[in-house]
Structure formats: structure tokens, C-alpha cells
Amino acid sequence: MTAPRTEKFADPQDLALRAADWMAGVIAAADAPFRMALSGGNSPRLLYGELSLRRIDWSKVRFYWIDERFVPPDHPDSNLRMARETLLAHIPIQPDQVHAMPTLSDPETAARAYEDDLKSAYGATDLDAARPLFDLTLIGLGSDGHICSLLPGSPVLEERTRWVAPVTQGRPEVRLTLTYPAVESSRLTVFLVTGRDKAEAVKRVRQGDQNLPGGRLRPQGETVWLLDRAAASLL
Ligand SMILES: O=C1O[C@H](COP(=O)(O)O)[C@@H](O)[C@H](O)[C@H]1O
């Protein structure tokens, strides 16, 4: 774990433009396959749109998700749908490059299936700190301090064995989430946070506040915080 780097931008559009340029360079410099875990919610929409416009060798990228709402893939709340509409539908990729969290069986079966998919890609059933699961993990932050669907007060915060788990409390819908061991296993962890409503959570997570799910994250590789001026306003 290295000291996090922080980049501040004037506004979400400026952040998205410059983050897309930087991420395109990261992908270009990396070996294939490049396993990239995507966040959902609203924050990464602009970035995904910008990435879709960059000249990137997408054939080397494998897309995964850090969490998903347990809804059909065409549902308005689906993180897969958001990524499809903003990025995946606009770039030259094959279906087998997209490793979406399954949501068509029951949550427990789906979580096991996704964990199997990750283990198959990783080539082992135990995580090795010297060999991260993901090359890049993109993480958003809720104003309540949640990351992925590691929600405040949820039993999943204590999960240290499974890589993927259902989350049945804390939101109206069931969700699937990477657990801490899986999400921490990344060569590069990128927090993307915008908006004044996130400023307090950013400050507390950066202080390592253990009461917030984000404050408990211990990424194994390099960590970069991409913040707009509003989200960074309390730092
Ligand atoms: O519930 C979620 O929240 C976080 C943050 O979402 P945002 O809309 O505030 O950007 C997100 O990273 C996660 O993937 C999503 O499912």
C-alpha cells in the first residue's frame, strides 16, 4: 500500500476529460489482459462517455463490476445498463470481454457464480497480495461513506472469505458486491468523487474513519483520488 495521490479538478466535466486521457495512457502501458472493475451510480457517467471517445486498444480490456443492483440488465437502476449506454455500446469489444454480475437467478447463486468467474480469470482460489486480481478498480463514494455496495452497518463489512456477496439490507433492492478482500486486490485503485454532498465523506474516508465503509478500505496497490473542487472542499 502506497500513500494515496490526490488530483483536484475544476468540475466534473474537467475531471472526466483529464481522467479519461490519463486512464487511456494507463491501459496503453499495461499488458493484456487488463482487468478493469467498473463502479456504478452516477459519478462515472461522464468519464465513461469520455473513455468511449479515446483511442484505446479495447481488445486487451476485460470489464468487471464492483457492485450491482439485483435487477434485470435493462432496468434503469442497473449498473451494467449505465456502463453499456455510456461506454460499452460505443467501443469495439466482444461479448466475452464483459463480465457483468449476473442478476437473473437468485442473489446467492449469482454471487457464487461471479466469484467463480473471478477465480477463473485470476487462475487461483486464493488471493496473493503480490498478484492483484484487478489492474484498475474504479470506486465511487456515497455521501454515507459507502463504497461498492459495502453499506454502513451491513454484515458484509465483516466478510473476509468470500470475494462476492449478496447485500440484503440497507437499500430497497438486493445488491451484489465485491467484498473487501476482492476490491482491495487491485494494482491501481481510483476513487472518483464529485459534488459538495460528498465532501464530508471524502474528508472522513481520507482520515481512515472506521465508521465509514470507505474508511476501512486498504487497497494493496497504488491509490489515486480524482475529486472535483466541491468534493475536495473540506480537505
Ligand atoms: O450505490 C452505489 O453507490 C456508489 C456511489 O454512487 P454515486 O451515484 O453516488 O456516484 C457507486 O460507486 C456504486 O457502484 C453504486 O452501486
Structure description:
The strands form 2 sheets. The protein has a 6-stranded parallel sheet. The protein has a 3-stranded antiparallel sheet with strand order 4-7-6. 26% of the residues lie in helices and 20% in strands. The chain starts with a strand and ends in a 7-residue tail after the last strand. It is α/β, with parallel strands linked by helices and 235 residues long. It has helices at 12-29, 45-51, 79-86, 107-122, 180-184, 199-206; strands at 5-9, 34-38, 61-65, 67-69, 134-139, 164-167, 175-178, 186-193, 222-228. The protein is globular. The chain has a single domain (5-228), classed as Rossmann fold, CATH 3.40.50.1360. The structure holds the ligand O=C1O[C@H](COP(=O)(O)O)[C@@H](O)[C@H](O)[C@H]1O. Ligand LXAUTJHC is lined by residues 39-43, 66-67, 79, 140, 142, 149. The site of the ligand O=C1O[C@H](COP(=O)(O)O)[C@@H](O)[C@H](O)[C@H]1O has 11 residues, from loops. This is 6-phosphogluconolactonase. It is an enzyme of class 3 (hydrolase). Its EC number is 3.1.1.31. It catalyses: 6-phospho-D-glucono-1,5-lactone + H2O = 6-phospho-D-gluconate + H(+).
